[in-house]
Design a protein that fits this description.
12 strands; Rossmann fold; four-stranded parallel β-sheet; binds iron/sulfur cluster; binds 1,3-dihydroxyacetonephosphate; 14 helices
Length: 300
Amino acid sequence: MLKDKILKLKRDKNAVILGHCYQNIEIDEVADYVGDSLYLSQMAAKTNADIIIFAGVYFMAQTAKIISPNKRVFLPNMQSGCLMADMINLEQLRDFKSQNKNVPVVCYINSTAEVKSECDICCTSSNALKIVKSLNVPEVLFCPDTYLGKWVEAQMENVKVTTYPGFCPTHMRIKPEDIISSREKYPNAKVLTHPECHKEVCKISDFVGSTSQIMDYAKKSNEKTFIIATEKGVVDRLKRDCPDKEFILIKENIVCPNMKHNTLEDIYNVLENETNEIFVDEAISKKALGCINKMLEVCK
Ligand code: 13P
Ligand code: SF4
């Protein structure tokens, strides 16, 4: 069986498999750690494995390589990009910074190594608010996700968050009308939303958090019915883990196509043939590591 072959190769090569919770659910059968982007980057920093297979999207594997430059990092399928991360390049970042001089720049982990290398501190969806607060300044620049930045700003009283106009096309499909109609259909349900959603969607939700935070909230809650406003992988896992509760995906087909490229077959192939290895330019990597490490320090 493919699964057994992967588990054997993993042991033989001292490899660890990290899986994001938007992955195809069968990936969990071989993954050592499954969670959100903060948890997985913390695991990439801690692991004693020689090889990291990152079942997620490119920026996640690239971040793992930056954090653990002496380990070999592989992405199962090279088509797994992130459309939001690709919305800002170095030139666009420099232009954004030049219009707002002397203001610290916070960059969402959904960004390239080059972009991270010229930002002050990194954040993920689970710690963005904590990171911005840790800077203790009246104004920050935030890239590339305008909606995460605006959600952070809405949680604080006296901090201006100037955002770059990037967004996630998958989360953008979720509209306030979808929340309103789901509430009509399931009046007792709690609405749990990812902060990449539009700010009007976040505003009318019961809880806003990262993928892992949404899963933790639903698992610990005494409520029985939840409307989930994020990628379908979260609903699939919640249904598996909490069969006594009801989980409704906010609307049909909220799927990140890039996250779904990785298959068990791809994982087997990269483990066996050691293809799709991630490399990062050393100078860029060192600068990007400074940005990532500042975040990991705040979230120890
Ligand atoms: P998390 O930080 O919740 O893992 O989200 C990453 C992501 O890409 C969401 O679209
Ligand atoms: Fe990127 Fe959106 Fe996919 Fe997350 S869901 S990986 S932000 S494209």
